[in-house]
Amino acid sequence: QVQLVESGGGLVQPGGSLRLSCAASGFIFSLPTMGWYRQAPGKQREMVATIRHSGDTAYADSVKGRFTISRDNAKKTLYLQMNNLKPDDTAVYYCYVNFGNWGQGTQVTVSS
To answer: Which of 52, 66, 75, 103 could be 6's S-S partner, Cβ–Cβ 3.0 to 4.6 Å?
Structure first.
């Protein structure tokens, strides 16, 4: 079955960087659109970044120029490089594949 396992979250100071990873199994990794979503306390889950089979990417306006989504098809791993982090980026980050499957989430906290 489809499994998505995120890692790489943690506590970082404003202006810092983190790289999230999502290890995938149970499907042909290179084919579907995948993405990163996040949910802050008291807010709805929102799209952060997506990447298509073609490599085309899309980003939320709030993260453009700071976050980069990528995928390593050989390693079956999705990444989210997050630079210049801000307190508003604090949330649980989820990996998603467009079959409707979600990972368990990884907490990112940006605070001094």
So the answer is: 103
Which single residue is written with the structure tokens 């970082």? Answer: 12
**Strand-pair category, 10-12 with 106-110:** parallel
Q: How far apart are the first and last CA of the chain?
A: 40
Rounded distance, CA 83 to CA 12, Å? 11
Closest-CA residue to 90 (of 59, 62, 55): 62
Enumerate residues 6+ apart whose C-beta is below 8 A from 5: 22, 23, 24, 95, 103, 104
Q: What is the pLDDT of residues 67-110, one digit of tens each?
A: 999 999 999 999 999 999 999 999 999 999 998 899 999 999 99
